[in-house]
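Folding Problem: From Residues to Backbone Shape
Fields: amino acid sequence; protein backbone structure tokens
RECORD BEGINS BELOW THIS LINE
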Amino acid sequence: MNRSHLRWGILGAANVAHKNWRAIRLAGNATVTAVASRNPARAREFIDRCQAEVPFPEIPIALDSYEALIHSPDVDAVYCPLPTGIRKEWVIRAAQAGKHVICEKPCAPSAFDLQEMIEACRKNGVQFMDGVMFVHSRRIARALEVIGDGTSVGDVRRITTQFSFLADDDFAASNIRGRLDLEPQGCAGDLGWYCIRLALVVLPGQMPIEVSARCHSRVAGAPHGAAGPADLTAELLFPGGVTAGFHCSFRTGLQQWAHVSGTKGSLYMPDYVLPHVGTELGFEMAQPEFHVNGCEFRMEPNDRRFTVPEHSHGAEIAPESNLFRNFSAQALSRHLNPAWPEIALKTQQILDACMASADHDGQPQRLPS
């Protein structure tokens, strides 16, 4: 592949694809050449709308089938935002056609399915990665430096996260995340995936030995009366006694915070998934000290703020642009990065364990070492 830009095809016209159209345009080493939909008019409308706002020099073509896109000679890589329930087939087909793949999350209905998808990519020599943007942020890289400096946080003991938003009254009827056949993990897959990933990023190379979770409610009014979790809490136990807890929900106002606690201090990020609007991203460090002097009891907060120059969204230096830039550079290098599919599979395995525990009234699930 002797070219400077990776040529992308988009499978479907999902809402998140609008954001990633811009991200591909801003990556600097990528371009969109085709968009496919089972409804050709919808693909054309999607292209016209995006092209009017964020134009590519050459207008991408609209294709009337996913099959046509994955076999197009003008496509090197496929971005797949299709529903989780039907994603496996098209990721495998894309890999067999020699296309690199970025797959939206949750990647698959189960780790078994994801293993098949990853194996198809490996066998056909193409790169696989899930679409988690925050891990490509400069801020996350800086936070990991601080966590690992040995003095700011010390030894990590606890990781706590929450990702939630308040769904509309007609959510089950109007959004695929309310359908068990299309999004079987509900809020656990849609939101909990990020919480699990944050723990794996902070504890590189580790997997929990035990997982427990409880589903507090399911999506109300779902078609056919079946739906995934709408409100779920989970606990992960890692080797050495480190724990990670998370809450994900379609029933609580928008929150997306992370807190990492250690023996010497703690780190707090209020917006780790979708950064608050701005041109610099930051996080807070706290190393409070408690002093007693006779009758005076005094708590010193010892707070510090760290920032990096990075845009929240829609810029060349933004997490989503970084994701497509990093992936495109990897694919153009003709060398595969095994770490990306590996961490996606670990995330899926933990998600599966959470779902199994929730389905059995919180019974702890052991993960293989």
Remarks:
- DSSP finds eleven helices and 17 strands in the chain.
- The chain has a mean pLDDT of 95.
- The first strand starts at residue 6 and ends at 11.
- The two ends are 39 Å apart (CA to CA).
